[in-house]
Amino acid sequence: MKSGSCPKCKATEVFRNPSGTRMSFKSGRSYMESSFDTYVCLGCGYMEMFVNLKGEDPNRVEDMRKTWKKIAPKG
Ligand SMILES: [Zn+2]
Predict the structure, then answer these.
(1) What are the tens digits of pLDDT across the range 23-64?
(2) Residue 40 CA, ligand 1 centroid: distance in Å
(3) What pTM value is reported for the model?
(4) Cα of 33 to ligand 1 centre, how many Å?
(5) Å from CA of 8 to ligand 1 middle
(6) Ligand 1 centroid, distance to 39 Cα (angstroms)
(7) Do residues 21 and 35 touch, judged by C-beta distance below 8 A?
(8) Do 9 and 44 touch, CB atoms closer than 8 A?
């Protein structure tokens, strides 16, 4: 996605929000507000968001590790 082509539909209609995307969502028992680096494919609507881990409070990152469900890698 960051390279300019969509991993889903292979279109090269990928745009990045230059102002970042601020969003709040429920994480564990509390609400978390964060700024995301956001990419959208205007070919199919697929969107990718990256949280800025380095700019994030380390406690929050630890909290996500504890309360979010880890996806087991396949194979
Ligand atoms: Zn696409």
Answers:
(1) 898 887 888 888 899 999 999 999 999 988 888 788 888 888
(2) 8
(3) 0.78
(4) 27
(5) 5
(6) 11
(7) yes
(8) yes
